[in-house]
Structures are given as C-alpha cells and as structure tokens.
Amino acid sequence: MAGIFNQNQQLLLLFLSAFLCINDVIAKKPQTDAFVNHGFQNWKRALDKSKGLDRHAQSQGHILTASNFTVFQERGRIKQNVVQLLDKNRIEKIRRNQERLTKIASVLLLCARQSIGIRGHDESENSLNKGNFIEMLKWASSTDPIVKSIFEESTRSSTYLSPAIQNELIKIMAEQIKRQIAEKIKGQAFALMADENRDNGGHEQLSIVIRRVVNADNHKYIIQKYFIGLIRLHEFDAQTLSNEIVNYLTNYGAKLDSYIAQCYDGASVMSGKCSGVQAILRQNHMPNGIHIHCHVHRLNLVIVDVNKVIQYISEFYQIVSKIHSYFVSSSVTNEYYQTA
C-alpha cells in the first residue's frame, strides 16, 4: 500500500487508505486509525499482533481501500471513465424502460384486438376490479419479472400506466398499422369505401375503408379490406367531407389517381351526381374512381320498399318478429325452443 514517510517525525501516512475510503468510512464515523489520520509513529508496537500494521491490515478502512483500489485498477485497465459509467447506467435504464413499455404495449394491443375495454370505473388501490389493462398486468406480474418490476421498481411518476400514456401508445400503434397499410397498397389499384355514423357520445364520424384485390396462390383472387380510421366531423357539406377524405388519405402517402372505385350509401351529400362527394372527388382528385352505390344499402332499400308495396311480405316479417319475441321473452319458452 503506497504511503508517505516523514523521516524527521518518523510518521507513516497511507494516503491511498486516507483517500479511497474517506467517503465510505470517514464520513460515517470519525477515524482513529493513525495510518489514515495523522500518521503512524509508534514503531515499538508496529509488529505486535492486533496492533500497529496487523491491526491496520484487519481494519474496515484498509479492507475497503483494498477493494476500492482493485476496482480503480480494473477501470484503468479497461479505460473506463466516470462519463462512460454514467452513460452505461443511462443505457441500462433505457433498456429496462423499453422492456417495460413493450409489456405494457402488448397488453394494450391484446385489449384492442379483442375489442375489450381498457380502463375500469375505479382504479384506486382498494378497487377489486381496476379494469382489463391493470388486471392483466397484475396477473402477468406473478410469472413475469419485467411486469413485476413495473409495479415494484418504478417510481410513482414513471410507471407508464396512466390513461395519457395508454392513449399515446395506442395512437403510436395505430399510426404504425396505417403506415404498413399504405406500404401494401402503394402502386396498386384499390377502392375507397366511406360512411357516416354517430358514436355513443353523439359525435358524427366518417369511417374510411380501403379495399383491394390480391392475387393469391394458384391464381385465386381474394378481396382484402383495410379499415384505416375514423374522421371526426364538424361540418357535413359535400366539399368539407371531400376535403377531409383527401387530407386523410394523402397524409399516408396514398396516390389518389390509383383509386378505381368509390362506394357510399345513397345519401345525396355522398352520392349526388353533380355536387356530391363522389362527383367532387372524381372531378378533382380521382379521375378513375367510378361511383358504386353500396349493394348492401341498395338491398336494404329494396326490402323496405317491398314491405310497403306488398302487404303479405310485411305481414310475414311481423309474424317472424312476434315468434322471436315469444320465445325470448320467457326463460320457459326459450328453454322449450332450445330443446325442441
């Protein structure tokens, strides 16, 4: 162990012991060891057992110094400085957080794929049911150490379980899916389907669906549909709806001249011959996009009109409706129907 010897005063100060253990030992407890305090000079007792050099060699300060010096030498050998150590810890922290976010995102994706709710009505500590998202993570924490660390090791401000983080992760995953769809349809012919609807909150939305034909194996053609999103509507005239559709599609790099068809219901604002959405899009953006009235909607209109014109068909549907009501209104009749 390196040190300083004062020949005039016959003092020996082990400066490595004094330097390397100062934060760990001296700061916690005042040192009485002469080797690291004011210098050793009792040379008559230097070689005595449990005194002098032997006592210092067995002291906590010396043992800690030896350990710290070994670490110091190892870091010097691999040329690892403090900045690198801090950077290594930062990288490790980022890696752990990425693992936790991956687990959280996978549960959110499962809830989305199964069309089940994410949040519960009561997510407090005493709640027996905190919602599908939290309950799934708690269930997984019993077997997955990464998920377990989300609840036990994360700070209260960085658990990544808040509704804001959930919404942000869902939005990121949705954007990735839309980009993947945009890559699939790039350079191909496809059709546009759109329809207005009102959600449970009373907000008008326009659903956007893209449809294409794919040449599968053995020259079998299959139809693929991609739901790419909902557009919140505040105005409902044809020009506004057309602008919303164009902006939404071009935002994902879709080439509008690749559209060969557009399909809507029979509402005049969508299917109007001169000033409907289909006419505006075809005149200004989709020259090849012929308009097709939705066949399902047309069938529904035919059935409604037939019911109005032919009385016995209307009576037929009324009888079927009454039979259905009879069997489902009572558990007795329903059981009889099931076993008949």
TrEMBL record:
Lineage: superkingdom: Eukaryota
Keywords of this entry: Signal
Span of domain DUF4371: 33-275
Residues spanning the signal sequence: 1-27
A Pfam family matched in the record: DUF4371
Protein name in the entry: DUF4371 domain-containing protein
Species this protein is from: Rotaria magnacalcarata
